[in-house]
Design a protein that fits this description.
472 residues; mainly alpha; two-stranded antiparallel ribbon; 2 strands
């Protein structure tokens, strides 16, 4: 437990900073005299963290996860400090980009380190706890951002990371002892560059499309072309590289490929609820922004509870296929109820299915990571975790873009009537159902591979103890 806590803390602050600036943007814009460009405060973090989620997982395999995790935390803290003292928007956006480099590494490496600290069967319980921490951070972000902005200053959004991160660094340095990889690995520079180009184009398309630029504008079409070309080039480079950033042999495992696809689908549908349910409540039902934001909490709490509970049962039984099968049914049925909502739908009629949908997505999040890691050899676990988290990031980005396009297509005028808006949102939520039907088919197709209960190769020093079981 002494080691698990600092890992939880750094994962908490890394996930917290994905959402904590959302409610503070008006205060930041007013203080820095920034206009519409203030959105880069959030976009810069999302952009760089998406890239390093993939890249740093591979670097951990090559040079050791402890070193790369320490580097990630240090970069994150440096970005936090520079964000707190920034006096202009360009400086703040640059500092947030630096912070995102560390944040993406933290997210990927902490999850990969669970593969070092515990056997596959015991790992489910630990990953359930870490998943709970990540979901709580995403939930708490908007609330804490508003509290800091109103009570102290928006700068404390970033300053609060410093004591937490520094304390975690000391404990990790003293207590985390992981097996060292064999020397001689080379960094796949060209793979990293093409992955960066692909991820950047995807994030910018999903961030700007339909908002800053129309979907048919030269900017969006150009970015889409860059994304397509860089993806093809990336696949070619990874096929021929001696030490690829994303070894394509990972996808020879049907279990890994199915886990990655389900991770993408789960994140896609999660973002439909997180982003567009508050918009539905404000646009159709006329609720305030703060009230609409509270409706997301049952969704995330359901996710937290499901991840934690399923982790305990998987550890006890070693069985996991049931959870994504049940999860796809729960999410699909819940979204079917939500897709019928209109101006007169009561709060309980929305909160209950949102919570149930969160439970279903929580089953996916737990099993996709566990099954994907379990399908790979230990020396590839960091890379595999990075790839799985990358698919999750892509699912969120694609979900934001796809459902935004569906919503825009349903709005037949710049000032739609309440009935038109309601119909557009019903169409949006209805489209999540076929995605969950696909997830159900993939879950049935997944072969349940046995979870080993063999001891992990990592050791943690704790007085006279050398084993991990006494510390997690």
């Amino acid at each position: 437990m002494a080691l698990t806590i600092p890992l939880m803390l750094v994962l908490f602050i890394a996930n917290l900073d994905q959402t904590i600036v959302a409610t503070a943007l008006p205060s930041i814009g007013e203080d820095l005299h920034a206009g519409s460009g203030i959105s880069w405060t959030a976009t810069a973090y999302l952009l760089t963290s998406s890239v390093t989620t993939l890249v740093f997982g591979k670097l951990g395999d090559l040079y050791g996860r402890k070193k790369i995790l320490q580097f990630s935390v240090a970069i994150f803290l440096a970005g936090s400090l520079l964000s707190g003292i920034a006096q202009t928007l360009p400086l703040l956006a640059s500092a947030r980009a630096l912070q995102g480099i560390g944040g993406g590494g933290i997210t990927s490496l902490v999850m990969a380190i669970t593969g070092d600290l515990a056997s596959p069967r015991q790992r489910a319980k630990l990953q359930g706890a870490l998943g709970m921490v990540a979901a709580l951070a995403l939930t708490a972000g908007p609330l804490l951002g508003g509290a800091f902005s109103d009570g102290l200053s928006w700068r404390w959004i970033f300053y609060v990371n410093l004591p937490i991160g520094i304390a975690a660094l000391f404990v990790i340095a003293a207590r985390l002892h992981l097996p060292q990889p064999a020397p001689g690995g080379k960094v796949d520079v060209f793979g990293a560059l093409t992955a960066t180009a692909f991820t950047t184009s995807v994030v910018l398309v999903t961030t700007w499309g339909g908002h800053d630029y129309s979907w048919t504008s030269p900017v969006i079409l150009g970015l889409t072309a860059v994304g397509a070309v860089s993806l093809i080039l990336y696949l070619f480079i990874e096929h021929t590289a001696v030490e690829p950033m994303t070894p394509l042999h990972l996808f020879r495992s049907a279990a890994f490929s199915l886990a990655a696809a389900q991770f993408l689908l789960a994140a896609l549908v999660l973002f439909a609820g997180m982003l567009y349910m508050p918009m539905f409540l404000q646009t159709v039902q006329g609720k305030s922004a703060s009230t609409a934001g509270l409706y997301v909490i049952p969704l995330l709490l359901g996710l937290v509870a499901a991840a934690a509970i399923s982790g305990l049962f998987i550890t006890r039984t070693g069985r996991y296929k049931l959870y994504p099968v049940a999860g796809s049914i729960l999410v699909g049925v819940s979204m079917a109820f939500i897709s019928r909502a209109d101006q007169n739908t009561s709060a309980p009629a929305l909160i209950v299915p949102l919570a149930v949908a969160g439970v279903g997505i929580g089953f996916f999040v737990q099993v996709c990571l566990l099954a994907g890691q379990n399908a790979q050899r230990h020396e590839h676990i960091g890379t595999a975790t990075g790839v799985l988290n990358f698919f999750r990031s892509l699912g969120g980005a694609f979900g934001a873009a796809l459902f935004g396009a569906i919503l825009s297509a349903g709005m037949h005028s710049s000032r739609p009537t309440p009935d038109e808006s309601s119909a557009a949102f019903r169409s949006l939520f209805s489209w999540t159902i076929p995605f969950m039907a696909l997830a159900f088919v993939l879950a049935l197709a997944m072969k349940e591979e046995p979870l080993s209960n063999a001891a992990s190769p990592a050791k943690v020093h704790d007085g006279n103890s050398t084993g991990i079981e006494s510390n997690v």
